[in-house]
Amino acid sequence: MTTMKHRDEGIAPELAALGLPDKPDGPGAAAMIAAGVGVFTLGLLTTLAEFWTGLSGFLADFQGSRGVGGLAGKSTLAIVAWLVCWGVLALLWRGKDFDLKLAFRIGLVLGALGALLTFPPFFTLFA
Amino acid sequence: MELSSRETWTVIHGLVLGTVFLLAFGGGLAGLWSLRPGFLTAAGIKERMRRLYVGTWVMGVTALLTVITGTWIVYPWYRVKLAAVGDSAFAGCAGLVVPGATCSPRDFLLSDVSGHTETWHEFGMEWKEHISWAAPILAITAAFLVTYYGPRLISRKWLRMAVIVMFVAAFAAAVVGGAFGAFLNKVAPII
Asked: What is the spatial distance between Cα B11 and Cα B140, in angstroms, rounded to a whole number?
């Protein structure tokens, strides 16, 4: 956790007329990391379901009678992971600062891994 | 001129929501890109930010509606297994040139009765159905960051670029979904 004082008006003097209050970076960092967690969860479940039949069946249980198959569970759990992570981190970091560059890098790595895990030539390696 | 219920939903999912998403992305990207120090007056910033808030949230919500309609309404019609007869998984597709009452689009593609079409499902649909769900996550996160930081994005170049990366990544995920959706609906339409 870091403490930062932003100097927005020094870089863009036109902002001075708007009278913007300084805002902590904690909520922004929470959003960035949570997005990465959501995409990573999506990819992880996609790949795991290829070889873990128990998980595959569990994910398909989310479809109810709609005939969506395992995608129902993968997408639902990815959205839940994203929102829960976002909510928890936002609560923890409310009114606080966090290194935004670090948060973005964490989110970017998680997101890139998640995207790779949804790529068929990759996840079918485990089928 | 008439559209069936299924055709109507595929139009809503792909064409209507897809077009709104594309428009919101174009406007949002242009707005974010030009959000630089010295470009706007205070009044201009207020006007620009209002449009940016609306544009980014429209993109996020549209992306969410697109994947929800795609997954929960259109996708079951695509993947239902209709063609199995006895030991033959795709007997119902024999002799067909498009999917029909005894052969769903998925059956049709996997059966290879109309050329080598299996990869459209194995690669195209499998990638599309999963990666598309990254689009609303990234687009809504970008919309939140635009709303939270507002005009401060003008003075924080690095943060603005980070938001643009998320915004473009959301678009890229949607392009995979949209492009394969268009091709799949061409090769094996939901009728």
From this structure: 23
Domain housing A28: 24-126
- Count CA atoms closer than 13 A to B95's CA, side-chain side: 2
A13 found inside a domain? no
Tokens 């904690």 locate to A26
In a domain, A102, yes or no: yes
CA dist B43 and A127 (Å) reads 57
- Residue B44 amino acid letter: G
Greater confidence, A22 or B163?
B163
| Total count of domains within chain A | 1
| B167: its two tokens | 């915004």
Distance CA(B73)–CA(B86), nearest Å, equals: 29
CA distance A7 to B53: 23
A120: closest CA of chain B, how far (Å)? 6
- Per-residue pLDDT of A67-116, as tens digits, reads 999 999 999 999 999 999 999 999 999 999 999 999 999 999 999 999 99
B-facing residues of A in 22-81 (CB < 8 A) are 23, 27-28, 31-32, 34-35, 38-39, 42-43, 46, 66-69, 71-72, 74-75, 78-79
Q: Is residue A67 assigned to a domain? A: yes
Within-domain flag for A32: yes
Residue B89, CA distances (Å) to A55, B96, B120 in order = 25, 15, 18
DSSP secondary structure letters along chain A? -------HHHH-GGGGGGTPPP--SHHHHHHHHHHHHHHHHHHHHHHHHHH-HHHHHHHHGGGTTS--TTHHHHHHHHHHHHHHHHHHHHHHTTT----HHHHHHHHHHHHHHHHHHT-HHHHGGG-
Average pLDDT over residues B78-105: 94
User: Cα–Cα distances in Å, from B145 out to B50, B120, B134?
Assistant: 14, 36, 17
